[in-house]
């Protein structure tokens, strides 16, 4: 079994077939990051493709001075920021699609599925209202299960800043979720 470093070296030497492994290994994490910036499933899918193309085009520049995932997240973050700049008007008027979610249980009952979809929709709606500086670290921490240090490296921030942003983001998210009257969802479990 090849190590990640061996795969990257083979890709850098022109063995492009190895890139499929990179795609399979990282596409869901990249999608989650892209979704954190776009808050739209279809836009996030398109952006994920753009990011993977950018990684493919620039993988020869990876020197191994940081971990591959850190380098990949930097490329992804920069591509997301560029995309946001180009599509600012489009994002400001985006309504969330009720598309498939990446984080669903395997074969839930119809009732569980409906409850989970409603919960996810409310959560994503509330996340979409948060400023980007809180939304993206929250999604990276909770959905990708990255550490403060990994998030900091990916976003170019000190770990303490990430901790502060996560704390403030959770607080804002909690306020948004608990502020709806008549909402009987158990949000405190999530927060």
Overview of the structural elements:
- The chain has 2 domains: 16-91, RNA polymerase sigma factor, region 2, helix turn helix motif (Rna Polymerase Sigma Factor, Chain: A, Orthogonal Bundle); 111-182, Arc Repressor Mutant, subunit A (Orthogonal Bundle), CATH 1.10.10.
- Helix content is 70%, strand content 0%.
- The protein is built from 10 helices and no strands.
Q: Main traits of this protein?
A:
191 residues, mainly alpha, Rna Polymerase Sigma Factor, Chain: A, 2 domains, globular, disordered C terminus
Query: Which range best describes the helical content: under 10%, 10-25%, 25-40%, 40-55%, 55-70% or over 70%?
Result: 55-70%
Number of helices: 10
* Number of strand segments: 0
CATH superfamily of the largest domain: RNA polymerase sigma factor, region 2, helix turn helix motif
Percent of residues in β-strands: under 5%
Largest sheet: none
As a whole number of angstroms, the C-alpha radius of gyration is 18 Å
- In sequence order, what are the helices and strands, one letter per element? HHHHHHHHHH
Q: Which architecture name of the largest domain does CATH use?
A: Orthogonal Bundle
CATH class of the largest domain: Mainly Alpha
Shape: globular
Helix/strand-derived category reads mainly alpha
Quote the CATH topology of the largest domain: Rna Polymerase Sigma Factor, Chain: A
Number of domains: 2
Keywords: Sigma factor, Transcription, Transcription regulation
Protein name: RNA polymerase sigma factor
Domain RNA polymerase sigma factor 70 region 4 type: 121-173
InterPro entries: RNA_pol_sigma-70-like, RNA_pol_sigma-70_dom, RNA_pol_sigma70_r2, RNA_pol_sigma70_r4_t2, RNA_pol_sigma_r2, RNA_pol_sigma_r3/r4-like, WH-like_DNA-bd_sf
């Amino acid at each position: 079994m090849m190590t990640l470093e061996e795969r990257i070296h083979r890709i850098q030497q022109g063995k492009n077939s190895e890139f499929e492994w990179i795609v399979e290994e990282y596409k869901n994490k990249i999608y989650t990051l892209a979704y954190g910036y776009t808050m739209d499933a279809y836009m996030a899918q398109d952006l994920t493709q753009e990011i993977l193309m950018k990684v493919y085009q620039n993988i020869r520049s990876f020197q191994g001075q940081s971990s591959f995932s850190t380098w990949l997240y930097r490329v992804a973050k920069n591509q997301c920021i560029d995309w946001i700049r180009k599509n600012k008007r489009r994002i400001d008027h985006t309504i969330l699609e009720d598309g498939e979610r990446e984080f669903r249980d395997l074969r839930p009952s119809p009732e569980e599925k409906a409850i989970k979809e409603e919960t996810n929709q409310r959560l994503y709606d509330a996340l979409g209202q948060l400023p980007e500086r809180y939304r993206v670290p929250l999604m990276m921490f909770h959905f990708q299960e990255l550490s403060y240090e990994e998030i900091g490296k990916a976003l170019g921030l000190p770990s303490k800043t990430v901790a502060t942003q996560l704390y403030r983001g959770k607080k804002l998210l909690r306020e948004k979720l608990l502020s709806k009257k008549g909402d009987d969802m158990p949000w405190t479990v999530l927060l």
